[in-house]
């Protein structure tokens, strides 16, 4: 009897743990991103050289612009990153740093042409950050197959061989206390945040 109770407790505990680390919507329109006033996730991610970066420590350094994108293979993401790079001097002048996060592996990030001490690329290849931010969603089978065949994308597999996940592109402004001061997330990956709106959000956060 004791063995049965022990087994049931362990099984239930495993179920709870699995539920805690799984936050993936069935479609991009169903994601629930973290909102202003909430704490930004304090995970550890790897940079393009494989070095572990502690986000809690990074938040304390400067106002952080967290850019979550789908991967270096996405042309809309590449344009967005380039656009943010153009306003980097203005962001730095306001005391901000840029942290761009994607499901790409550190090896894939190393191919990026972005080189700046104020603009860091981090790998979320296990989708932990995307889940914690409430941005992760499953691709439907048809889309996943088309992306894999035409783009050769290395997707994260989180639920068996048939499902793959991506993050909804998003931008968060996080203050030095780790609180989200601004959030923009759009299920339509073709529509990205205007750089002028981002500058205004960072300026507002810097004045608080």
UniProtKB/TrEMBL annotation:
<keyword id="KW-1015">Disulfide bond</keyword>
<dbReference type="InterPro" id="IPR050924">
    <property type="entry name" value="Peroxiredoxin_BCP/PrxQ"/>
</dbReference>
<feature type="domain" description="Thioredoxin">
    <location>
        <begin position="34"/>
        <end position="207"/>
    </location>
</feature>
<dbReference type="GO" id="GO:0005737">
    <property type="term" value="C:cytoplasm"/>
</dbReference>
<dbReference type="GO" id="GO:0008379">
    <property type="term" value="F:thioredoxin peroxidase activity"/>
</dbReference>
<dbReference type="InterPro" id="IPR000866">
    <property type="entry name" value="AhpC/TSA"/>
</dbReference>
<protein>
    <recommendedName>
        <fullName>thioredoxin-dependent peroxiredoxin</fullName>
        <ecNumber>1.11.1.24</ecNumber>
    </recommendedName>
</protein>
<comment type="similarity">
    <text>Belongs to the peroxiredoxin family. BCP/PrxQ subfamily.</text>
</comment>
<dbReference type="GO" id="GO:0034599">
    <property type="term" value="P:cellular response to oxidative stress"/>
</dbReference>
<comment type="function">
    <text>Thiol-specific peroxidase that catalyzes the reduction of hydrogen peroxide and organic hydroperoxides to water and alcohols, respectively. Plays a role in cell protection against oxidative stress by detoxifying peroxides and as sensor of hydrogen peroxide-mediated signaling events.</text>
</comment>
<keyword id="KW-0575">Peroxidase</keyword>
<dbReference type="Pfam" id="PF00578">
    <property type="entry name" value="AhpC-TSA"/>
</dbReference>
<dbReference type="InterPro" id="IPR036249">
    <property type="entry name" value="Thioredoxin-like_sf"/>
</dbReference>
<keyword id="KW-0560">Oxidoreductase</keyword>
<feature type="signal peptide">
    <location>
        <begin position="1"/>
        <end position="18"/>
    </location>
</feature>
<dbReference type="InterPro" id="IPR013766">
    <property type="entry name" value="Thioredoxin_domain"/>
</dbReference>
<dbReference type="GO" id="GO:0045454">
    <property type="term" value="P:cell redox homeostasis"/>
</dbReference>
<keyword id="KW-0049">Antioxidant</keyword>
<keyword id="KW-0732">Signal</keyword>
<keyword id="KW-0676">Redox-active center</keyword>
């Amino acid at each position: 009897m004791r063995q049965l109770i022990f087994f049931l407790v362990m099984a239930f505990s495993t179920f709870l743990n699995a539920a805690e680390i799984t936050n993936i919507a069935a479609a991009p329109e169903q994601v629930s991103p973290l909102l202003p006033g909430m704490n930004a996730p304090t995970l550890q991610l790897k940079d393009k050289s494989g070095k572990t970066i502690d986000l809690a420590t990074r938040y304390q350094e400067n106002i952080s612009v967290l850019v979550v994108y789908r991967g270096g293979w996405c042309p809309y993401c590449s344009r967005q990153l380039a656009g943010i790079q153009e306003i980097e001097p203005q962001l730095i002048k306001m005391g901000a740093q840029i942290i761009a996060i994607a499901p790409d592996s550190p090896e894939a990030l190393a191919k990026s042409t972005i080189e700046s001490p104020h603009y860091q690329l981090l790998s979320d290849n296990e989708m932990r950050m995307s889940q914690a931010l409430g941005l992760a969603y499953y691709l439907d089978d048809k889309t996943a197959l088309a992306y894999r065949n035409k783009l050769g994308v290395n997707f994260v597999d989180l639920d068996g061989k048939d499902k793959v996940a991506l993050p909804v592109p998003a931008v968060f402004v996080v203050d030095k206390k780790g609180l989200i001061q601004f959030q923009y997330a759009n299920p339509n990956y073709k529509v990205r945040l205007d750089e002028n709106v981002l500058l205004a959000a960072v300026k507002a956060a810097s004045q608080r």
